[in-house]
Design a protein that fits this description.
With about 475 residues, this protein is an alpha/beta fold. The protein is built from 18 helices and 14 strands. It has a six-stranded mixed β-sheet with strand order 2-1-3-12-6-13, sandwiched between helices. A four-stranded mixed β-sheet has the order 8-9-7-10, with helices on both faces. Helix 7 packs parallel to helix 9, helix 9 crosses helix 17 and helix 9 crosses helix 18. The two termini are about 40 Å apart.
């Protein structure tokens, strides 16, 4: 897990940052004023996760922040922490009434709505400048009950299936799985004949949370309905839980009960997984560490359930909150608007891990830090062009592997599907009710009992938040 870090700015870094700020913002760079100086007119402190793609932080985000600070006469402090630390760190700062002005989450932080600023004005301004926000991102940052934006979402990450083509070819399914049943049939065959398991977690971590929801939705069930009523306990949920029990027995191993957010990435790279449900970050790591594995990794959209339904959750949803203790709200909002204005850089330096929330944002003029894309005028153009012709493909592999991700909007949804990611959904997510439900059944509990217990927990959470007036529905 990455350690928190704070960095000063050397003279060489300042000169470089000042030059970059001219291109990035179209203004002459002002003199950088260190945080210690009383002459600094503004200041913000930003807390972000340590990105899965290392070059994002090292080659772009940190230098972007410094350039922005220099151009806007703002002293900026950036701290990076591991993703698992974000909830507890946020809770501690909110409780103390002091800390960072901006905190980045990678799941909906809806349970903190009472403790953060409403960012409706910021979203409206962003849509005025950059076009409509992606509905997936809106549902992950907006509470329809209170009509407030508890966070600002500048981007998200697609969550495709990643499979080893050579393994699936030997099993008789060369283009990888299309349905959840394929994981059982062919994934089970791969484990039996080739000794390679599936990489789907059943533990208290991000990827297990996402995978459990994908299975639930594809079996035509959900935690809540569109009106925010709890509907978890039904025959389709029980069917999904029974399926997961079979899948574990046929195609998985006990290590999935103790997985962390990087475990399935590591299993794929080490050649110990035939399929994982994850972003392209594992593939990017394999390109650098084990190129032969990377060449064998291909991608699938969301898998279909027994009645043809298919949904995957977004893998990461970037949500910035501004806690009520912040004394630099306007400056924080300006930073977020300028981040969206430069999101082409976020896409490129995340190696296409990041997708934009505002697809129709124009590409900024001037020198960009990536090779030019002919005819691209909006982020949507870049998004599709790069997925058709991956600029990070390595020698010996197809540059069109990622084209399957172009229509990911059609099979990606938010963690509260079919409703919004309200505060109750946020708490259900952060307390891992869904992966625990699946794990309990896999370990021997009757499916019906596992679902009943999960629903009791979910209903208690919904009742609590409904009493606070922050969740809709009646049951």
């Amino acid at each position: 897990m990455a350690k928190s870090r704070k960095k000063g700015m050397s003279r060489r870094e300042f000169v470089k940052a000042a030059a970059l700020s001219t291109a990035a913002f179209g203004v002459a760079p002002s003199i950088f004023i260190p945080r210690q100086s009383s002459a600094a007119s503004k200041e913000i402190k930003i807390l972000v996760w340590s990105h899965f793609v290392p070059r994002f932080d090292k080659e772009w985000f940190d230098s972007f922040v410094k350039s922005w600070g220099a151009a806007n006469n703002v002293a900026v402090t950036v701290d990076h922490i591991g993703l698992a630390e974000i909830p507890s760190r946020t809770a501690a700062e909110v409780s103390a009434g002091q800390g960072h002005d901006l905190i980045e989450w990678i799941s909906p932080p809806s349970q903190f709505e009472p403790s953060v600023h409403d960012l409706t004005d910021l979203v409206k301004e962003a849509e005025k400048r950059f076009g409509k926000q992606h509905v997936l991102c809106r549902k992950s940052s907006y509470n329809p009950r209170t009509k407030k934006y508890y966070s600002f979402c500048p981007g998200w990450t697609i969550d495709p299936g990643c499979y080893r083509k050579s393994l699936w070819e030997k099993a008789g399914k060369p283009n990888g799985p299309e349905t959840w049943e394929d994981l059982l049939t062919f994934g089970g065959k791969i484990k039996k004949d080739q000794g390679i398991q599936l990489g789907i977690g059943l533990s208290q971590e991000l990827d297990s949370n996402m995978a459990g929801r994908a299975l639930l939705w594809s079996y035509d069930s959900s935690i809540q309905d569109e009106k925010e009523n709890v509907v978890l306990n039904n025959k389709n949920t029980i069917q999904a839980v029974e399926f997961m029990t079979k899948l574990f027995k046929e195609a998985m191993v006990p290590e999935v009960f103790a997985w962390t957010a990087v475990s399935n990435n590591q299993a794929l790279i080490a050649g110990r997984a035939s399929y994982i449900l994850n972003s392209i970050s594992a593939y990017r790591s394999a390109q650098k560490e084990v190129p032969e594995i990377a060449k064998d990794v291909y991608f699938t959209p969301a898998l279909k359930g027994p009645r043809g339904t298919r949904w995957n959750s977004e893998h990461v949803i970037y949500n910035y909150i501004i806690p009520k203790h912040s004394k630099n709200v306007d400056t924080a909002k300006k930073f977020l608007l300028d981040l969206v204005a430069n999101y082409d850089q976020a896409m490129y330096f995340s190696e296409l891990y990041n997708s934009p929330a505002f697809f129709d944002a124009p590409i900024p003029s001037g020198d960009r830090k990536y090779p030019s894309v002919k005819g691209a005028k909006k982020l949507r153009d870049l998004h599709n062009t790069w997925f058709d012709n991956d600029p990070f493909a390595i020698a010996g592999e197809s540059a069109g592997k990622l084209s399957v991700l172009k229509d990911a909007e059609k099979w990606s949804t938010n963690v509260g599907h079919p409703g919004p990611a309200n505060p109750a959904i946020g708490e259900v997510f952060s307390t891992f009710v869904i992966p625990n439900m699946f794990a309990n059944a896999v370990r021997g509990m009757k499916a019906e009992t596992a679902v009943e217990q999960a629903e009791l927990l979910v209903k208690a959470i919904f009742t609590k938040w409904r009493k606070k007036g922050l969740v809709g529905g009646t049951k």
